[in-house]
């Protein structure tokens, strides 16, 4: 891989992938609708900035022309998934076909459905019980049936630099600003989070490995950790001493009457009560060690970035 296009480059995993590609001296094109954010993130980096709309086929095809790998790290608002998620994947697949590029897809865990309390392997049948899980599985199958060289990497919840739209960063940002902080879900539940630079390392490693294509890959976090443990680390790093309250399912349901995102998020709240844990043994067997930054270090780096 000499030249890559990163779609959704201004987002949490997309921006981390860009940094990892630069670190490996790979030529990078960054693509997003928000040119100002791309410039603020990458103006001092050796990248080609392309402002465009992934739903505009010509803009996407032009951006993809001549690249070796397209990284799909776009995340659209929940309330647009039903209408736009299939079109999004279709446009990206078409651009990959025309440019004869390989496709590397960042995905979440929604398509797996409930974990039944065991770490999930790639061989387990996906059985989504939510609308958004079914939509993600449909998009996954579209990519697989396209005939292009591609792989899909499944990740747990993100946290890290420039991951402001994630659940954990939402809490950490309030702590950094010494505002009233809230934690979504049960603080006693052991959940899994991935530090976005770790996820980016795994994505790029897969993209560079021929045998990764045509397969799904699970990329777990460092380990499971309770909200209580992770918030204690954050308090030590920030000096935050106030009580951190729980965002309950009832609160999400109430907010959903006024906010379309919250209304759509409600069905995914189960992940905070019945955590899904990924089995990364296939990656470790076929590719190498899964990148695992200790939570304390990842939290400290994230907090430093939030402080600016």
Automatic annotation (TrEMBL):
Pfam families: Epimerase (PF01370). Signal peptide: none annotated. One of its GO terms (molecular function) is aldehyde dehydrogenase (NAD+) activity. Residues 4-219 form the NAD-dependent epimerase/dehydratase domain. It comes from the Bacteria. One of its GO terms (cellular component) is cytoplasm. This is SDR family NAD(P)-dependent oxidoreductase. It comes from Peribacillus glennii.
